[in-house]
Amino acid sequence: MKLLSLILSLIIAMPNASKASSNKKTTSEFAADYRIESLEPNLHMYLITVTVQNPDSKPTIDFILPAWRPGRYQIQNYAANVQEFKAMSGKTSLAFEKIDKQTWRVSTEGKSEVTVQYKYFAGGQIDAGNSYVGRDEIYFNGSNLFVYTDETRFKPVRLYIDYPAGWKVATQLEPTDNPHVFTAETYDDLIDAPTLVSPTMVTYQVKVKGATIYICFKDNAGLGGYKFNEETIKKDIAAVVEAQFTLMQDVPFKTYYFIYHILPISFAHGVEHKNSTSIVLGPADKMNENYGRFISITSHEFFHVWNIKRIKPKEFMPYDYTKEVYTPMLYVSEGFTSYYGDLSLVRAKVWTPKSYIDDIADGITNLQKTYGRKVQSLALSSFDAWLSGYGAGRANSTISFYSKGELIGMLLDLELRHRTKNKHSLDDVMRFLNEEFAKKNRGFSAKDFQEVVERFAGGSMQPFFDNYINGTEELPFETTLEYAGLDLQKTLSPQPYTGITSGVENDFPVVKSVVPESPGAKIGLDNGDMLIALNGNFLMKQSLSAMLSRFKANDSVKVTIQRDGKLHEKTMRLEGNYIYSISKKKNPTRLQREIFESWLACKWNDE
Length: 607
Ligand SMILES: [Zn+2]
Hints:
CATH architecture of the largest domain: Orthogonal Bundle
Number of strands: 29
Mean pLDDT: 93
Strand order of the largest sheet: 5-4-8-2-1-11-14-13
Distance between the termini: 68 Å
Radius of gyration: 27 Å
Low-confidence stretches: 1-27
Number of domains: 4
Strand content: 25-35%
Structural class: alpha+beta
Bound molecules: zinc ion
Largest sheet: 8 strands, mixed
Helix content: 25-40%
Shape: globular
């Protein structure tokens, strides 16, 4: 390294570098130095500076910004937020060209060290996976705003965070003696660490099986209307963490950070990381009544510590940040995480067995209402996450790998317990994947996963995979719940089924969507049809659902609609809307009772 460029790199990347002399690594051991500073907090602009070593004197180096981030399998195009990109070495400007939307190719002129610098806009609606800078906070996910190079991606990196005195930092990055300087073993570790710096942060701390768990809120509790009870939060989170350590028989870190933003608006979003999670929830004034959601999302994100952050589909090893990475396994990575997230709450005695079983019944009701379950398999839903894995997706053609995956997790668990007379369960599958794949740095394929399941099932599970994961057969809830001594009941909702959703325009309900094969579809209803009357009862300023609740399944109703300025009348035959519930059998067999008790870590009679 030349002296001039060394000095420059220290100026750019390492103010207060004197204190960093006791770092484990010296300057030359870091392949890349990152610096983030809030340039104009009121304009929500970061200034990012990245200096990389070029020991082989490569003539050009490509600086790449990810097109997506692990945790959200959709193209995000973070490069849209980059402006005023510059390249230099010391005081010498270097030429560069953009070779695609997210890659800047810099001509190094043989320099041993190359610096790029750019502004990054971080001022949109905050969520768990993006970045924000404002007057009272610095919050970033490195995947959004730090460029990498193929030459330095898997080498140690260092980060300098510029922030005002007195602000507190929450991050899973490795601290150094300098409170502004953090290190990571690789770029992938650097961007796997959501970082919050705030003057108002409140941090609670619990110890579980030797690991320190930090629970960080961006604001003082009480600001914005939420008043969590510190002792309840610490007790419940410690119980969830311990239940999952016990489940996985593994404590894979020394420290872990839960980083929370509580917003004034309605919000629920979490993103998992190896040794931390970022969770954004709201509205603040309803946090106490939504505590169930708070603890459920907390438990979900924590189970990702293993399931996807360590136990990974093989396609994610390593991640290709430049384009879509397809895997049919998101139903395991996300769906089973939802399954174990909530199951851990029962095992941790944060939820009662009854509330958990009611939650499963709600999940079944919702799945059975979703027409897309007949169209798209769970494996395809995972693969096509990049198209519509989140939000509404294509109307009536998709199912969620989260919610159906969660139910598949339960069915597989009970199936394994039943087949093996409760000797094995899905817990064994997850532990095996952790020991034999994650800890050996191997990703798993769809074939590997089926083999592991079959190893514990003691035989073929081919029909299960063909019908329920790769196919669209109706799921065998009734039979499988019986294995745990549970009965599934199906009752008619007081609200009959039409298969349409509606909004209100000019005081009348207007059709927004129509489910295929539904009563609405059978009479040809279409988006935009204005519903004027039902059986001659004027719908102006009326609630459609209140009006429908006067009818029941099999009733024929005259529907008056306005379409293209003309009135039409059609007769719709209503159908039944079903609600599922689950109850315990009066006289379970011994095996059913044993399965129930070990599954939920409770006694049969616990409510
Ligand atoms: Zn998740």
